[in-house]
């Protein structure tokens, strides 16, 4: 039987898998419920203003980075200059700048805490050394947890003697390593780390897996990028590649049912159209699966996937703002993290991404758009009264914090709307507005992750809930693994 692939969902994971498979010469059909590509890395417009829906900071575009390798394989180069000053991190005690240069970055932190100079320097030496070793495993990209003998063999063949030094850290958290370096009680330093980790790892320094935290704290030094327009450009390039290589890409097609018939899968959309395929990749939030599949099929899914389907993650409140730049003392910087208190959510930490003043794709001359987001617990939104009150509370909290560091910010606003959990559910299909994937704790990461193999022949999953986790790099990697399993080829080069 000739193999053909159906992909449900045009997020970064599904687009990565689809573009690789189409380039490889396979028959690919991709269905997307929205009119936009990219999922949480997509976009929307309001009059003259364009807003990134979620993800904003470009990563993985450096030589050998995940996205760079994908675009190189697709023969669609994406050249950009990395940011030397990646972001400003504003905390109640002090303000940091995250510099691309590792030495400059550590020197700046030491300058804030001179009494802890030796501990901070030895901590970062360990972080950078650990990250450099972990990155050598990111070249072959072995999937975890291995689901069959082929993946076990690939993992074993990917291991080198240098990787043995990672074994003592496999079950450790970053909090344990901070204690080993006598930094566990340096609260302002830990708050700075927490602000970096909550966006990438969905948890803080106390609980995050040390090996993944080391990569997360180091990866900005490899290359962080401002992408004109936004990360939706990744999605559009991959969508174009699918069509150029003979694939079909259909928007506004919501798959409502997925069934198994013999050796084939049958998907039915909201219009009653059916699509048959030998292989299916689901780039949908895993919490959607019970609504797509029969209980009998759900019971056949692998155990970790079934557990994950019933496990809540963070939700979010996102503010989409346009400002008149002339009313500010200076243009908004492209990336800024703010911390206004303890805790990881509910406005205690939030991230601000602003368009460059000359980015005409996002705003006309004299204006900037900004996306402001914070993590939130789903229990804060479970009644209408709580929902309305919490949206107002978090909106005021974030705007007030910005006004403190950017005088006149409120007065400069010419457009403001909120993306609360129901909005995320409506426009991205994410139940309860769950975003970001699972917190990358020891219990959830690496060998405890959810495999891209769903547990039923010919069915695969990708996205931010699947190994290796959230962010565009994580979603793309899960898409690569699904494409490799179907094609039987490594596809992308190192």
UniProtKB/TrEMBL annotation:
Q: Which residues form the Amine oxidase domain?
A: 12-486
Q: Which Pfam families match?
A: Amino_oxidase (PF01593)
- Could you state one GO biological process linked to this protein? carotenoid metabolic process
Q: What is this protein called?
A: Oxidoreductase
InterPro entries registered for this protein in UniProt: Amino_oxidase, CrtISO-like, FAD/NAD-bd_sf
Source domain of life: Bacteria
The GO terms this record gives for MF are: oxidoreductase activity
């Amino acid at each position: 039987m000739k193999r053909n692939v159906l992909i449900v969902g045009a997020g970064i994971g599904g687009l990565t898998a689809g573009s690789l498979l189409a380039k490889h010469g396979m028959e690919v059909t991709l269905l997307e419920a929205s009119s936009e590509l990219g999922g949480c890395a997509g976009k929307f417009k309001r009059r003259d203003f364009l807003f990134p829906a979620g993800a904003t900071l470009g990563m993985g575009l450096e030589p050998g980075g995940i996205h760079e390798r994908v675009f190189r394989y697709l023969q669609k180069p994406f050249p950009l200059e990395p940011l030397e000053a990646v972001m400003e991190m504003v905390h109640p005690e002090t303000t940091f700048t995250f510099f691309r240069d590792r030495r400059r970055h550590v020197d700046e932190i030491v300058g804030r805490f001179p009494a802890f100079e030796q501990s901070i320097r030895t901590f970062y030496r360990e972080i950078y050394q650990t990250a450099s070793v972990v990155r050598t495993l990111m070249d072959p990209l072995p999937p975890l947890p291995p689901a069959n003998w082929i993946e076990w063999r690939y993992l074993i063949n990917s291991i080198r003697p240098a990787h043995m030094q990672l074994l003592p850290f496999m079950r450790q958290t970053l909090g344990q390593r901070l204690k080993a370096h006598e930094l566990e009680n340096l609260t302002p330093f830990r708050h700075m780390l927490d602000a970096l980790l909550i966006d990438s790892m969905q948890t803080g320094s106390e609980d995050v897996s040390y090996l993944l935290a080391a990569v997360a704290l180091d990866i900005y030094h490899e290359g962080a990028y401002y992408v004109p327009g936004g990360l939706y450009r990744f999605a559009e390039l991959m969508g174009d590649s699918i069509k150029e290589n003979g694939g079909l890409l259909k928007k506004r097609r919501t798959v409502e049912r997925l069934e198994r018939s013999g050796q084939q899968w049958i998907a039915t959309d909201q219009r009653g159209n059916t699509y048959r395929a030998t292989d299916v990749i689901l780039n949908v939030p895993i919490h959607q699966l019970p609504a797509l599949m029969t209980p009998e099929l759900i019971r056949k899914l692998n155990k970790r996937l079934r557990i994950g389907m019933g496990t809540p993650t963070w939700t979010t409140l996102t503010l989409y703002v346009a400002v008149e730049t002339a009313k500010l003392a200076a243009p908004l910087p492209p990336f800024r993290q703010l911390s206004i208190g303890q805790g990881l959510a509910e406005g205690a930490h939030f991230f601000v991404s602003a368009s460059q003043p000359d980015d005409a794709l996002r705003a006309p001359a004299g204006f900037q758009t900004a996306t402001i987001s914070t993590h939130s617990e789903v229990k804060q939104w479970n009644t209408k009264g709580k929902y309305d009150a919490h949206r107002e509370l978090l909106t005021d909290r974030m705007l007030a914090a910005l006004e403190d560091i950017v005088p006149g910010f409120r007065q400069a606003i010419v457009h403001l709307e909120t993306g609360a959990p129901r909005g995320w559910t409506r426009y991205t299909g994410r139940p309860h507005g769950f975003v970001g994937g699972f917190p990358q704790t020891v219990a959830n990461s690496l060998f405890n992750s959810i495999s891209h193999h769903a547990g039923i022949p010919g069915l695969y999953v990708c996205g931010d809930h699947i190994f290796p986790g959230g962010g565009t790099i994580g979603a793309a990697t899960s898409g690569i693994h699904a494409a490799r399993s179907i094609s039987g080829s490594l596809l992308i080069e190192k």
